[in-house]
Amino acid sequence: MLKYAIIFAVISLIAGALGFGGVAAGAAGIAMVLFGLFLILAVVFLVLAALGVGAVKKALD
Questions:
Q1: Are 8 and 30 within 8 A, CB to CB?
Q2: Which of 15, 14, 13, 8 minimizes the C-alpha distance to 32?
Q3: Pick the residue with more confidence: 57 or 30?
Q4: How many angstroms separate the CA atoms of 55 and 46, rounded?
């Protein structure tokens, strides 16, 4: 997901440099949404890992 956010950010920068404002704004919006989802999922998985939820805990039970 982070890879796609970076790709859309690069597309936005290139489109903005070439004068395509609408395409640049759309790509920037998509990049922001994808990066926000990445951050939320990263925090959720870090919390789950800290709590010990996963295969290791299930194997020990």
A1: yes
A2: 8
A3: 30
A4: 15
